[in-house]
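Here is one chain, start to finish.
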Amino acid sequence: MHAIVVPMAARVKGRYAVALQRKPAIHNEVKEHLSGMTRKSSSDVESLRRQVASLKKENKELQKLVHQSKRIPKYIPPPSTINKETILSFGLSLVGTPKWLTCGAWLKMRRFRSHFGVGPSAIVALISDMKRLQSKPINLTYLFIAIAWLKIYETEEQMAGRWGYGEKHCRDTVLDYVARIQAMKKWRISFRRISTKSRFLPVDTVHIRCQEFRCTPDSKWYSFKFSGPAVAFEVVTDPDTGYMVWINGPEPANIDDCVFLRGGKKDKPKSTWKRSALYFHIPSGVKLVGDSAYSSQPDKVTTTKDAHDTKTKKLFARMKSMQETCFKRFKDFKVLREAFRHGTGTDDKMEKIKTSFEAVAVLVQYDIENGHPLFEV
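Its structure:
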C-alpha cells in the first residue's frame, strides 16, 4: 500500500483551520482566566485598602496619644464640685503619673506632695477661697504650674519642657498665679484669727537665701546662717491653733531682731519707727515669746529666764520649737531653700522675694488648716 503524500501547504492550511475552529474556546479560557485574576486582584486590593485604612486609624490614635502626653490642655476650669480625690488625681496626671498605675494612698500622697508641697485638701480650700474672693476665673492647670514652680523651682526652660508651653508663657503664668496665691494672705494670715485661749505668741525671724545684690552691695545682706547674702522675714504663730497670724519683711539679713520688731533703732525717737512694724500691731492682752535676741524689748517680748519655773520653760521651748517646724515647712519649697535668682534690681528682687515667700506661707497655712497641722504645744 502506498502512503498518501499530503503537500506541505495543505498540512499548514489544515492546522490553521483547526486552530481557527478552537479559537473561540481558547479565547473564552483566557477571558475566564483573566476575569478570575481580576476578581482576585480586586479582592486583594480591597483587603489592602482595608488594612491601610486600619493602619491610618491606629496611627492617628497613636499621634493623638503622643500629642496629649506632650501637651497640657490650655484651659481646664475647676469642676463645679471639687474634692480631695479629684484634685489628687488631676495633679498626679499633670506630672505624668498614668491613671492606670495602681498604688497605695500613702504613695499617691507622697508623689503629690513631692511636686506641689501641700496636700490636695489644702488646694481644694485654696481654690474655693479664690473662687469666692477673686473675680478672675481660675485655670486649674495654670494654678498647679505655679504651685509646682514654688515647690520644685524649675527654670523657664525646664518648665517649657515639662508643661509644653513656651518659656515666656510659663513665666507670665507663674507671675500671675503666684501673685494671686499671695493675695490670699490678708484673709488667711491675720491677728484677727488668734485663738481666744492664746496669751503668748512665739515670734522669730527666718533667713531666705538669695543671689548677690549687685546694684547695692553691702554687708547688711550677709547672713551668718548661710555665710552669704540673704533676707529676713518675721513670723508670729498662734500656739493654740498652729496658724500663722503675722508675716513681715523682707529686710536685710543682718538686721537685729529687735530692730526688725520695732521698725527702727531703740536710740531713735519712736516717731521715726516704721508704723508697719510688728511693735505697733501686737493685739492688746497678748505678749510675744522670743529667744535671747529679743531681750532688749521686754515690754513686748518675753524671753526664757532662769527665774521661770520648769513648766513655763518647757512651754516656751515648745512654742519656739513649733516656730522652727513652721520654718522647716517653708524650706520644703525649693524657691525658699535655694538661692533666689529673680529680680532686675534691688527693689524688684525684694518685691519678688516677698511675693514668693508670702505665697508659700499661704500654701503652708492652708495645709496646716486642712489635715497637716503643726504639733500641739
